[in-house]
């Protein structure tokens, strides 16, 4: 058999579908490793798999998030560039400097994460026309209450830019796909987030990896869990309101009386809001704030929880919910489109922004038998195992990279391959 190949710069296409590795720059995330944040976790999971496939991935890092590190971590090239750490300048300054660093490195692909960073996606289109530009639309950030009118205007512009300047735009949820089609008449590529499925032997007791439960005086299966950045859009205040009222109204209920609520997360330029949450929770000693947690400590908190609650008002594709489902945990969520896509059991949905509705659903869940609760958790695990796999999402991304590069950067590639085949 005769094989043929066509050199496309950094890529080689052949009749066997072979290619050389891609040099990819990830820009927009806070850094690596992923201590917290859905975008950061997304970038980490995808990047770690891309390097296993033989590609070169550079993840740009902010010192305040990932430390002052440079070099190889888990096969990923970490590059720390400066920024100005204020709410309005942190992301845009870091994106600007990272963009020019990536252009200087002559990467094949610059991949922006988030509509804010996509504001600068025009720069490589002007200064590096042979670089493929991709943007992932993670969420409608302008809905977040922490932003003022100017920032919201810029984020709205970033939404538009994410469809104008990148060669291809990715969304992580069908609701975002519909939004982009309606608002911008834009074609996007749906590539979902994934999760890690935790398949442990149910007959073998789980041994905690850290002392986090002891540190906060927590007992297994005696607390509900929320893992989230503490920003108004995540609606932690709604959960606290519901939980406090539940404890006050059902003191005679033994399960309610001893139950605790654990809130894992911290401020993201939202110190005033976080202070208001602590004040709101001060009337109830069973509400525990742990700040951000990661690694073994976060795993112990997930595994030890009775159930997971996510009261967000707006979302993209909530990784914390996927993670809880991957642990086989019953997951109670607000009835927004991004949650309804994930949670198949209508009894585990409550009306968003409504603490009374949430309180009612928590009590309903607590009154279920252990067998019923376990069945809900197992159904969650089965669903995400089937539909949300990081390996599959990474393969979809690689396919998009390759086809987009051939289409936009080397548009004659298909013609050249066809000619080579005819000559062979």
From TrEMBL:
Q: Which GO terms describe its molecular function?
A: glycosyltransferase activity
Q: Name one Pfam family in it.
A: Glycos_transf_1
Residue ranges of every copy of the Glycosyltransferase subfamily 4-like N-terminal domain listed in the record: 36-195
Domain Glycosyl transferase family, which positions? 216-379
Question: Sorted alphabetically, which PANTHER family does this protein's record hold?
Answer: SULFOQUINOVOSYL TRANSFERASE SQD2 (PTHR45947:SF3)
This one is known as Glycosyl transferase family 1
Q: Which organism is it from?
A: Candidatus Magasanikbacteria bacterium CG_4_10_14_0_2_um_filter_41_31
């Amino acid at each position: 058999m005769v094989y043929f190949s066509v050199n496309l710069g950094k890529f080689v296409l052949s009749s066997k579908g072979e290619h050389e590795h891609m040099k990819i720059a990830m820009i927009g995330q806070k850094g690596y490793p992923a201590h917290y944040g859905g975008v950061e976790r997304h970038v980490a999971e995808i990047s770690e798999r891309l390097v296993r496939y033989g590609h070169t991935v550079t993840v740009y890092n902010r010192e305040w998030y990932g430390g002052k590190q440079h070099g190889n971590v888990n096969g990923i090239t970490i590059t720390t560039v400066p920024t100005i750490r204020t709410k309005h300048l942190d992301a845009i300054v870091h994106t600007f400097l990272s963009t020019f660093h990536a252009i200087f490195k002559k990467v094949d692909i610059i991949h922006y994460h988030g509509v804010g960073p996509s504001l600068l996606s025009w720069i490589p289109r002007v200064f590096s026309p042979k670089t493929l530009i991709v943007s992932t639309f993670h969420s409608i950030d302008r809905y977040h209450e922490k932003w003022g009118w100017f920032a919201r205007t810029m984020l709205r512009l970033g939404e538009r830019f994410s469809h104008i300047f990148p060669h291809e735009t990715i969304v992580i949820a069908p609701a975002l796909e519909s939004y982009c089609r309606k608002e911008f008449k834009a074609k996007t590529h749906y590539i979902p987030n994934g999760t890690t499925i935790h398949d442990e032997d149910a007959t073998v007791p789980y041994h905690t990896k850290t002392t986090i439960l002891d540190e906060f005086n927590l007992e297994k299966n005696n607390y509900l869990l929320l893992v989230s950045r503490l920003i108004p859009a995540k609606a932690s205040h709604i959960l606290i309101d519901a939980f406090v009222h539940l404890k006050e109204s059902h003191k005679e209920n033994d399960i309610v009386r001893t139950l605790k609520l654990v809130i894992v997360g911290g401020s993201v330029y939202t110190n005033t809001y976080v202070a208001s949450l602590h004040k709101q929770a001060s009337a109830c000693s069973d509400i525990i704030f742990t700040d951000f947690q990661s690694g073994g400590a976060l795993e112990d908190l997930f595994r030890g929880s009775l159930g997971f609650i996510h009261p967000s008002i707006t979302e993209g594709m909530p990784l914390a919910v996927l993670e809880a489902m991957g642990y086989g945990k019953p997951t109670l969520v607000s009835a927004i489109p991004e949650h309804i896509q994930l949670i198949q059991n209508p009894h585990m949905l409550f009306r968003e922004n409504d603490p009374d509705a949430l309180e009612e659903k928590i009590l309903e869940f607590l009154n279920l038998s252990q067998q019923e609760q376990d069945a809900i958790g197992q159904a969650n695990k089965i669903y995400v195992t089937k539909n949300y796999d990081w390996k599959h999402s990474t393969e979809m991304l690689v396919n998009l990279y390759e086809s987009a590069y051939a289409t936009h950067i080397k548009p004659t590639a298909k013609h050249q391959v066809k000619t080579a085949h005819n000559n062979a």
